[in-house]
Amino acid sequence: LLEYHLLTLVCHILILLLAVLFLWSNAHTFIHKSPPRIPEFHLPEEPFLQVVSALRIEINGGFAVLHSIGSGRDLTKFLVVCNLIIC
């Protein structure tokens, strides 16, 4: 349990919750309980577009740095990256 990653645990809990809700929704006539009322929600598109746009700028900047390192233009950055990879 100590080597169980948090993301894996959260995913397994969500899968279990989804399975329980699915079974409860389909078996509500047999267990004589009302089906679960799951609220609908919609996420607005604009904040996601802003986040993706900001990430695109940062990723393109990272690619530009990698391009300058890979093309041999910046020896100091190349040595820093090699040092980070080795350590």
Automatic annotation (TrEMBL):
Provide a GO CC annotation, any one.
Answer: endoplasmic reticulum membrane
Give the Reticulon domain ranges.
1-81
| GO process terms (BP) | response to bacterium
What membrane topology was assigned to this protein in its record? Multi-pass membrane protein
Q: What does the UniProt keyword field contain?
A: Endoplasmic reticulum, Membrane, Transmembrane, Transmembrane helix
Which InterPro entries has this protein been placed in? Answer: Reticulon, Reticulon-like
Q: Any stretches that span the bilayer, and where are they?
A: 6-24
> What subcellular compartments does it reside in?
Endoplasmic reticulum membrane
Keyword Cell division on entry: no
Q: What is this protein called?
A: Reticulon-like protein
**What species is given as this protein's source?**
Glycine soja (Wild soybean)
Give the lineage: Eukaryota, Viridiplantae, Streptophyta, Embryophyta, Tracheophyta
